[in-house]
């Protein structure tokens, strides 16, 4: 059983000293939370796992550079974001919509507060659950499952215009209820598999 750390400075000091107990505590405490955060950025399980592994590995390798007066939690979240950006930019073909996505991510992380972030995610998911049934189903197929509008139309046996109407309606309802920073949070929750309906709404 590893030691439970209540003090940030003590945890950082033990990490810097190379105590494996501190590293085990770090992984046990933050792995799941960081995975959820990274997955919200990538919308890709494999890429998320790579990011988390790299962050913990580099934290251990460069532990001597950690500062006791810096929040280890904030450091880890920022590291996940930086690793995501590094992997993201290795793809040479970045569309205009993907650039907008990165800008939205940057805005959210620059003001990042884990507690606030989690509250926003809960709030948005609650609003999604409250959408009309067909609207909710269409929205989730698009934004969580990554299906194209044509694929959704075929899957639900409805017209393409109906699909577009449901997705637009979903965004409209969520934006109206949540208002502040909805776009950036939606990007974070559903990744880069977005359609032009979002761009239309932002005009």
Oligomer: single chain
Structural class label: mainly alpha
Shape descriptor reads elongated
**Into which percentage range does the β-strand content fall?**
under 5%
Largest sheet geometry: none
List the helices and strands and how they pair.
Blueprint: H1 8-16, H2 20-42, H3 45-61, H4 72-88, H5 96-110, H6 114-129, H7 133-143, H8 149-156, H9 160-178, H10 182-190, H11 196-202
Helix pairs in contact: 1-2, 2-3, 2-4, 2-10, 3-4, 5-10, 6-9, 7-9, 8-9
Please tell me about this protein's structure.
InterPro entries: RNA_pol_sigma-70-like, RNA_pol_sigma-70_dom, RNA_pol_sigma70_r2, RNA_pol_sigma70_r4_t2, RNA_pol_sigma_r2, RNA_pol_sigma_r3/r4-like, WH-like_DNA-bd_sf. Keywords: Sigma factor, Transcription, Transcription regulation. It comes from Snuella lapsa. Residues 126-170 form the RNA polymerase sigma factor 70 region 4 type domain. It holds the Pfam family Sigma70_r4_2. It is a single chain. The chain has 203 residues and is an all-alpha fold. Helix content is 74%, strand content 0%. The chain has eleven helices and no strands. Helix 1 (8-16) packs across helix 2 and helix 2 crosses helix 4. The longest helix has 23 residues, at 20-42. The N and C termini lie far apart (55 Å). The relative contact order is 0.10. The model is unreliable at 92-97 and 191-203 (pLDDT under 50).
